[in-house]
Design brief:
By secondary structure, this protein is of the alpha/beta class. The chain folds into two domains: 129 residues, Aspartate Aminotransferase, domain 1; 221 residues, Aspartate Aminotransferase, domain 2. Helix content is 40%, strand content 14%. Helix 5 packs parallel to helix 6 and helix 7 packs parallel to helix 8. 44% of the residues are buried.
């Protein structure tokens, strides 16, 4: 019999992410309010759309396998060199490279239980082992817990999303600096900063280059280009050169490279999105408060609202889907009693509020 690797044979059949399209097919919905995947409701920069549109006739060409122009622009902004930047088809792709390069079969990855799941999927698929530590009761990443576990287990990679998904919380600059200080010299600290634009710049550690540090960012969230699939990492030149050995050299969409460059040049647009999202988060806080619910203060483009138990939160997600509203919820305690809703446009937020108010709790 043809067999996959032992690591892959051991994974049960599953569909990790059920997308809104599948939910529509299953529920017989002809349209759905997409507030479940933290996509940007505000779209890409019109300048990026124009630049991509103008280049569409050249889709017969491969993109530049070095993503040179984009890496050069990023390097000059981040005050590092082009050798410190890798471009991939989104953070998900870059995390796969990191796991494949640095976690061999049986290698250990340390992360937060219930955080953004793609990292763990890569670890399992490449035969690594996961060591996890739960969120604190207040929904924050347990940085001290990670530090003490890292000292004991010397994992190949420590992964955190900061700001975090699904909680929306942020670990402070001071905490991240302590975590990096405590990271063993044989360990890579992988900071997933998919939502960096939505938090104040002062909350982040500067872009230092350290052999132990790999930061990944994306054009999928604040830049509104999730469907284009493009993101980048900032790391030591040695880590970037390692990625170069194994990455797909034509894996990045040419049109996405062009769109990303144009998007970077449109700072006003991103600033507007961030301000709209801030507005939207406040709307959701007010809605939660009006419904007598607690919420987690968010540094992302989504908000978690507390429904007290996984049973009730699941029922809310299900009832909303019946009303044509797609949201998700965290799956691991202590956050599994929350629902997670992405910030939509004002009219979408109002439609969400109306649907949520109409849900009868079990
Ligand atoms: C959305 C998201 C990603 C996915 O990023 P892509 O660049 O689209 O692959 C990665 N990490 C976190 C925490 C996210 O929420």
């Amino acid at each position: 019999m043809v067999r996959a690797t032992p690591a892959i044979e051991a994974i049960p059949p599953m569909t990790p992410f059920i997308g809104p399209e599948q939910l529509m097919r299953e529920g017989g919905h002809s349209s759905i309010l997409r507030l479940g995947a933290n996509e940007s409701a505000f779209g890409p920069s019109p300048k990026a759309v124009r630049a991509m549109g103008a280049e569409l006739p050249r889709l017969s060409w491969y993109g530049d396998p070095e993503s040179y122009d984009l890496r050069e622009t990023l390097a000059s902004r981040l005050k590092c060199t082009i050798d410190n930047i890798s471009v991939g088809s989104g953070i998900d792709d870059l995390m796969g490279l990191a796991v494949r390069a640095f976690i061999g079969p049986g290698g250990i990855a340390l992360t937060t239980r219930g955080t953004y799941p793609t990292f763990a999927f890569h670890v399992t698929g490449y035969g690594g082992a996961l060591s996890t530590i739960g969120y604190r009761e207040d929904g924050h990443i347990d940085v001290d817990g990670l530090i003490s576990k890292a000292k004991k287990h010397k994992p190949a990679i420590i992964y955190i999303a900061n700001p975090d998904n699904p909680s929306g919380t942020i670990a402070s600059r001071d905490q991240i600096e302590r975590l990096l200080d405590a990271t063993p010299k044989e360990t890579l600290l992988l900071l997933d900063e998919a939502y960096a634009e939505f938090a104040p710049a002062a909350s982040f550690m500067p872009d230092v280059i350290d052999e132990r540090l790999l930061r990944v960012r994306t054009f999928s969230k604040a830049y509104g280009m999730a469907g284009a699939r493009i993101g980048y990492s900032v790391s030591s030149a040695r880590v970037a050169a390692t990625f170069n050995k194994i990455r797909l050299h034509y894996g990045v969409n040419r049109n996405a490279q062009i769109g990303a460059l144009a998007a970077l040049a449109d700072a006003d647009f991103v600033a507007e999105v961030v301000s709209e999202v801030d507005h939207g988060r406040r709307d959701y806080y007010a809605l939660a408060t009006a419904l007598g619910r607690k919420y987690l203060e968010s540094f992302t483009n989504f908000v978690c609202i507390d429904y007290g138990s996984a049973e009730v939160a699941n029922a809310v997600v299900k009832a909303l889907l019946e009303r044509g509203v797609f949201i998700r919820k965290p799956f691991a305690p202590p956050l599994d009693g929350h629902i997670r809703v992405s910030v939509g446009m004002a009219a979408e937020r109002a439609a969400f509020a109306e649907a949520l108010r109409s849900v009868k709790l079990p």
